[in-house]
Structures are given as C-alpha cells and as structure tokens.
Design a protein that fits this description.
By secondary structure, this protein is of the alpha/beta class. It has 3 domains: 2-128, Rossmann fold; 172-272, Beta-Lactamase (2-Layer Sandwich); 277-373. The chain has 11 helices and 10 strands. The chain has helices spanning 22-34, 45-55, 71-81, 96-104, 117-145, 152-168, 187-193, 197-200, 212-223, 274-329, 333-373; strands at residues 14-18, 38-42, 59-63, 86-91, 109-112, 172-177, 182-185, 232-241, 247-259, 262-272. The strands form 2 sheets. The chain has a 5-stranded parallel sheet, sandwiched between helices. The protein has a 5-stranded antiparallel sheet with strand order 7-6-10-9-8.
C-alpha cells in the first residue's frame, strides 16, 4: 500500500474510516496503521460521527454509498461541526456526479474503488496540507485577536508568518483595500490567472479580474443574505478572467472587512474549478453515449422482432386466403369443414408462435433497459 510512503512520523495524525463493507475497513485500516496513522473504523455514518466526537480526528475517509446516513451527509455534518477536519470521500466507478457534489461541499479529495496507491498517497498528502494550513491560519488569527505581539520582534515574526502562510496556501488569496485596489495576491493567484505579483499589487483593482456581468452578480450577492449572510460569500461559484482572456470557473469564499462600521477592504479565497467542470463534461458525455447505445440496441431488437414474426404471419395470411378460395369454389360443407379445421389449427399455432416471439423479445428489452439505467 502506497500510504506507507507518507512519513511514518505522523503518529499523532488520527483518521476515522467509515465503510459498510467489513473487508474494506480491515484492509484500509491495516495499511494506514502501518503508515503511522491512528485509525478508528465505523460501519455506518452515525457510528463514524460518534468516533469523530470521541477522538477528534484530523482526517475522515468515508464511502459515499452506505445504508442510512450516506457519505455526503457525513461530509456536511463533519464540515459543520469541525472547522479543520478534512474529508476524503470514496466512490464507486460511475458515481462521478456524487464525487463532484462532494468537492462542491469542500471535500479535500475523492477516490474511486479500487483505490490505487498513488491516488491514496496524493489524497492523504493534500488533506494533511489543507488541515495544517487551516489550523495555522486560525491560530495566527487567534494570536492577533489576543494582541499577544508584545514586542516588535514578535510582531515582525507574526508578519513573516502571515506572509509565508498566504504564499503557501493552495487556494488563491486576493485582498483589496477600501478602494478595491489589490494589496494581497499570492502565488496560487499568479498560477490561476497568469498576472504576476509586480503587475498586480497596488496597480490593479478587483474589477479587472471579472467580466462585467459576473462582477455585478458578485457584488449584488455579496451584499445579500443568500450565501452566508450580508457582506459574506461562502462556497460561491463564479468566473474570473485570466490574462489571456480565458474564462476560469472558480469557487470563492469572500468577506468584507470593517473597522468601526467603515469598510476597510475585502478578502477572497478562490478555488480552481476547471478540473471539476472537466469531470462534469465527461459525466455528461458518458450519459449521452449510453443513451445512444441504448437506442441503437432497441432499434436492432425491433428489427429482429419484425424479421422473426414475418414468417408465421405470412403463413396465417396464406391459410386465410386458401379458406376464401375454397368458399368461392362452392365445395361441400363436409369438405370445407375438414380443410378449414386443419387451416385454423395451423393458423392458431403460427399466431401462438408470434406471441411467444414477442414475449421473449419484451423480456430481453426489459432486462436491457434495466441494465442500462443501472
């Protein structure tokens, strides 16, 4: 298991692993414990949340498909109850829509079964980095709130820490003053939009990173209550404009800053959604291809039915025509009765054959549609 490569010194890192399949829980738990993690397992969402309250883990790994409380409900509950805990969701192949929804709810990553060593390594490292960054940022904010920087040395140290924290963030961080001029612009923003820090700081304004219609919507929703309260946006989808003119889909959390009821600035945290949008397009393409294949198979099935019932129907039609000719020839009633009885028996058999063919094809069609829908 590749998780062994994730520094075994992290013995203080605790993981709650939630999966309703016992074999998967046991195998994953052994691998993570060998990598140095403390692991507690749960068979359902309720038990997993109880473990979170007891051991306060840094990371939760949860399957999406579970009876009772599913993985998305676990994700929502954990994010609401524990600010710093990172959640990795595990999906089955073909559940990309659920994986995308999990990322939109701020899951740190998703893994598809069967889980590869490389994917597990990357997901755990990303979760650990996000947890550490958020914890450091919160501790730094608490430090400033308590005004513990009693000396200029401590103040300079806090400033250096702040700059390092902003620059190392995996999310793009952009801050503006009260005139909307950019005063904070980290490395992730440079990678996201293409403008360099010297080009942006104290020279460009917030509006230059938005298209006109998106800027108006962003400002209107920031002033409204729909996305986290007035003067705040939480997990809000919008688009930014790159230096090349490219449209960049992003998810943003933003808040206006105030000092004694006077607005002093705005800070925004941007998350690149291009990979999520790519997954959404792939999911849509898969659904369209599946529908086309389904229609083609149904067409072939219909053609097969027509071919197979054509012969017995032709026989029935032939016997009916013979009976009409006999009636026109004026044969005796005794002769007609004997011939008609034989023809009617044959017509009945051919009609039953048609019914059996149609019933057989209908069962195949029902099975195919059920499989395609699944």
């Amino acid at each position: 298991m590749g998780a062994k490569q994730i520094m075994a010194v992290h013995t203080c890192w605790k993981i709650v692993l939630i999966d309703d399949e016992e074999d998967i829980r046991e195998v994953m738990a052994i691998a993570l414990q060998e990598a140095g993690f403390t692991v507690k397992t749960a068979a359902d969402g309720g038990e997993g949340l109880q473990l979170c309250a007891e051991i306060l883990p840094q990371i939760v790994m949860t399957d999406i498909r579970m009876p009772g409380m599913d993985g998305l409900q676990v994700l929502k509950t954990v994010k609401k109850a524990y600010q710093d805990v990172e959640v990795i969701v595990v999906t089955a192949f073909g559940e990309m829509d659920l994986a995308i929804r999990a990322l939109q709810l701020d899951a740190s990553d998703f893994l598809t079964k069967p889980i590869s060593d490389e994917a597990l390594d990357l997901a755990l490292k990303r979760a650990m980095e996000r947890f550490t960054s958020k914890r450091q940022l919160r501790e730094y904010a608490a430090l400033l709130e308590k005004e513990k920087a009693a000396t200029s040395q401590e103040l300079l140290k806090a400033i250096r820490f702040q700059r390092n924290l902003i620059e190392s963030s995996m999310d793009g961080i952009l801050g503006c003053d009260d005139r909307h001029t950019v005063v904070i612009y980290n490395h992730s923003m440079e990678q996201l939009l293409g403008w360099t820090k010297p080009e942006v700081l104290h020279k460009m304004s917030l509006k230059q990173f938005f298209f006109d219609d998106e800027l108006k919507r962003f400002r209107d929703d920031l002033s409204a209550d729909a996305y986290g309260g007035a003067n705040r946006l939480v997990i809000y989808d919008t688009h930014l404009k790159a230096i090349s003119g490219q449209v960049i889909p992003v998810q943003v959390s933003a808040t206006r800053l105030f000092n004694q009821d006077l607005e002093t600035g705005l800070v925004c945290f941007f998350r690149d959604l291009r990979e999520i949008r790519k997954l959404e397009r792939e999911l849509s393409d898969q659904a369209r291809i599946l529908h086309q294949e389904k229609m083609m198979s149904l067409g072939r099935l219909a053609a097969s039915v027509v071919h197979e019932i054509n012969n017995p129907l032709s026989g029935v039609l032939d016997y009916l025509r013979r009976m009409k000719r006999i009636l026109g020839q004026g044969q005796s009633a005794a002769d007609r009765q004997e011939k008609f009885q034989g023809y009617l028996d044959l017509a009945e058999n051919e009609t039953s054959r048609c019914s059996q063919i149609i019933s057989s094809k209908r069962c195949k069609s029902t099975s195919f549609c059920s499989a395609a829908s699944f």
